[in-house]
Design goal:
The protein is α+β, with helices and mostly antiparallel strands and 231 residues long. It has helices at 14-31, 74-88, 107-119, 123-135, 147-155, 161-168, 171-186, 208-230, and strands spanning 47-49, 63-69, 94-100, 194-197, 201-203. Strands 1-5-4-2-3 form a 5-stranded mixed beta sheet, with helices on both faces. Helix 3 (107-119) runs parallel beside helix 5 and helix 5 crosses helix 6.
Amino acid sequence: MMFHSALPISSRTRFARVVATALLAVLPLLACAAPPAADALVAGTDYAVIADGAPFEPRPGKIEVVEVFGYTCPHCASFEPALQEWKQQQKADVNVVSVPAPFGGYWIPYAQAFYAAQSMNLVERTHRDMFRAIHEERRLPVGGATPRDIAKFYAGYGVDADDFAAAMTGKPVHEKLVAARDFLSRSEVEGTPTLIVAGKYRVLGKTSEDVLRITDALVSRERSTLAQQKK
């Protein structure tokens, strides 16, 4: 899957274009394919094992799926609709957690904004709209956005702009960013979007569909593990 990082993205080769064309012929079959069995996945190809990994927000009886994202990341904006559709199909034991990547620079204000919005119960109403505001409507810049600029966006959802800007730079949000940075570091996350299952597995799929199929298989694996532990 394409992801946003500090590394340059290589241009597609002629071979890749030929393969992509060939895949179009079998796309209907792939769309109907079942998720791969957990024991059919290949470590190092489909996922990476996180040494001594742990969930970001552990909850008893829940299988955590973390999405590491950035509002400024165009690949995250493209992935978001598919992720939300996938989320709606999950069983009650799956807990999907969004973690904004505080990589530095222009990533920081928008990570602060996410946690400030979370503290005011605004994420459900504003999450998709924030992606649109940056990548489609161009109402907010990728780089150079100040807390005041971002607060004006959230003021459209009924909060005081001054209060929101203050929350972005307050201690509770700072502590959230530190926790997110630590989680990304120990999970060896280098780009966005990245999915992490149960704190144990970092998904390595090449396309959005591939990522979600692998995630399904890893969730099934973790569900079996939890069932065995209850016996």
